[in-house]
């Protein structure tokens, strides 16, 4: 009797464990396969984020509809007037490429609900505006032609769809349970769930191979939304089926599902170290703006300077991550002059220094970063890069590097940097037996952030 009960319990437990296991896997692949699938992205390191939508017209934040609690009717004027007559995605693609970016991710639909692509499931789309064309189609073509990876951002949140239930992030958000019940009486999230799945299917079917999907975002908790609201499990299953090579961000609230996401997305935040999940270093990409908001914001003046932008890129790579740097095109379809200038400056630096970025990652632990510098490392070429954020005066000590370095040069002009004992009494005293000294020229080279390339001993 007892043993029968035991067998029963064992069977139920086994079934349970199996179902949890099956549930928790949306993609079966080995860690090696995953690494290979993501290799192009990991090596690329630098991409362009593009936030574009009707909000470019009010030009005061992509959340303007929420911030000013506008209704659909009040927001309609932007739809009626939308006509980006200067839109030329080829120019954007060339700008991205010249800046050194290797891929781009564009908002196909942001929280406002307006679709930049032609969708069967809505009238709220560019093809119904004065402009009349599918912006995404032209965009994909142009970016592909320039050899860039293409990614689609798709907002899970939707402030226009009549069935999307009003929540704390919605322009018509409320305070109490009662109020929400009243507001959502005639809204059916099930219908919206279908809508979003249909649209993601369109995006991943009608535009050829798509390299990245960037879903945004979940906010579990009171008056929030999470995976069951989006139908995330079914959604990601479909995404994987339609585009088996695709790379997926982590905002559909499926952190505990293998294959539910591929990389994590610290936003406007510099991670203190390589992010860890379940004890392992994970792929990551920080997304950052030039000036604070994502959409075009005419009167925003908090623009980062060129050095800060380069540091963002270098620091990300030094911790094993990517940078997705955002532009918010204007209502006419052009890139703001401030963004254009910044991209040009980054491109100037990348032209001479990109070997310290592409294919690079965190330096091996046996190398410590000298003061005011950031290290990156290319494991294939066994070269170490020292980025000098603050140009030192002549004698530059590399602590613990003795016996590890074959040759040293500046990256931008391949000019040798002599490894030699310092001549002055005081700096000689500072050097211990495990250290080496580089003799740098007095003048800072004409490069925003000079890079020393060390060819290491095998
Ligand atoms: C946030 C914001 C959004 C932006 C995104 C980019 O989730 O809601 O406006 O698109 O971050 O990461």
Give a quick rundown of the structure.
The protein is α/β, with parallel strands linked by helices and 458 residues long. Helix content is 31%, strand content 16%. The chain contains 14 helices and 16 strands.
Description:
The protein is of the alpha/beta class and 458 residues long. Helices cover 31% and strands 16% of the residues. It contains 14 helices and 16 strands. The strands form 4 sheets. A 7-stranded parallel beta sheet has the order 5-4-3-2-1-9-8. A 4-stranded antiparallel beta sheet has the order 10-11-16-13. Strands 12-15-14 form a 3-stranded antiparallel beta sheet, with no helix packed on it.
- Superfamily (CATH H level) name of the largest domain: Glycosidases
According to DSSP, the number of beta strands is 16
Which distinct ligands sit in these coordinates?
A: alpha-D-glucopyranose
Query: What distance lies between the first and last C-alpha atoms, to the nearest angstrom?
Result: 68 Å
Domain count? 2
Report the radius of gyration as a whole number of Å: 26 Å
Helix content: 25-40%
Strand content: 15-25%
Structural class, from helix and strand content? alpha/beta
Order of helices and strands: HHHEHHHEHEHHEHHEEEEHEHEEEEEHEE
- Would you tell me which CATH topology of the largest domain applies? TIM Barrel
Report the principal-axis shape.
globular
- Would you state the CATH class of the largest domain? Alpha Beta
CATH architecture descriptor text of the largest domain = Alpha-Beta Barrel
Mean of residue pLDDT? 95
Strand order, main sheet: write it out. 5-4-3-2-1-9-8
């Amino acid at each position: 009797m007892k043993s029968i009960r035991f067998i029963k319990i064992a069977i139920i437990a086994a079934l349970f464990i199996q179902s949890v296991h099956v549930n928790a896997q949306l993609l079966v692949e080995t860690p090696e396969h995953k690494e290979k699938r993501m290799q192009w992205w990991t090596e690329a390191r630098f991409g362009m984020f593009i936030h574009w939508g009707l909000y470019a017209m009010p030009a005061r934040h992509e959340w303007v509809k929420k911030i000013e609690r506008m209704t659909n009717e009040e927001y309609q004027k932007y739809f009626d007037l939308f006509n980006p007559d200067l839109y030329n995605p080829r120019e954007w693609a060339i700008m991205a490429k010249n800046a050194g970016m290797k891929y781009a991710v564009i908002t196909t639909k942001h929280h406002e609900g307006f679709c930049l692509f032609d969708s069967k499931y809505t009238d709220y789309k560019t093809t119904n505006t004065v402009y009349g064309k599918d912006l995404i189609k032209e965009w994909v073509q142009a970016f592909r032609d320039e050899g860039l990876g293409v990614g689609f951002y798709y907002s899970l949140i939707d402030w226009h769809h009549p069935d999307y239930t009003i929540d704390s992030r919605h322009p018509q958000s409320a305070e109490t349970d009662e109020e929400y019940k009243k507001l959502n009486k005639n809204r059916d999230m099930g219908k919206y769930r279908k809508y979003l799945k249909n649209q993601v299917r369109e995006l991943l079917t009608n535009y050829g191979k798509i390299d990245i999907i960037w879903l945004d975002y979940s906010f579990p908790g009171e008056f929030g939304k999470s995976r069951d609201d989006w139908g995330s499990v079914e959604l990601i299953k479909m995404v994987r089926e339609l585009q088996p090579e695709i790379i997926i961000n982590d905002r559909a609230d499926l952190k505990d599902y293998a294959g539910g996401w591929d990389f994590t997305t610290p936003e406007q935040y510099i991670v203190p170290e390589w992010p860890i999940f379940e004890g392992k270093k994970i792929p990551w990409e920080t997304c950052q703006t030039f000036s604070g908001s994502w959409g075009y914001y005419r009167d925003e003046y908090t623009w980062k300077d060129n050095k800060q932008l380069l540091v963002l890129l270098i620091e990300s790579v030094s911790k094993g991550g990517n940078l997705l740097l955002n532009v918010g095109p204007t209502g006419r379809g052009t890139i703001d002059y401030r963004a254009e200038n910044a991209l040009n400056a980054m491109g100037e630096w990348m032209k001479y220094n990109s070997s310290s970025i592409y294919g690079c990652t965190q330096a091996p632990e046996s190398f410590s970063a000298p003061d005011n510098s950031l290290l990156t490392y290319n494991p294939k070429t066994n070269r170490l890069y020292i980025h000098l954020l603050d140009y030192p005066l002549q004698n530059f000590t590399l602590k613990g590097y003795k016996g590890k370095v074959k040759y040293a040069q500046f990256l931008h002009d391949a000019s040798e940097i002599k490894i030699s004992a310092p001549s002055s009494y005081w700096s000689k005293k500072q050097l211990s037996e495990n250290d080496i000294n580089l003799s740098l020229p007095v003048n800072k080279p004409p490069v925003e952030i000079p890079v020393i390339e060390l060819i290491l001993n095998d």
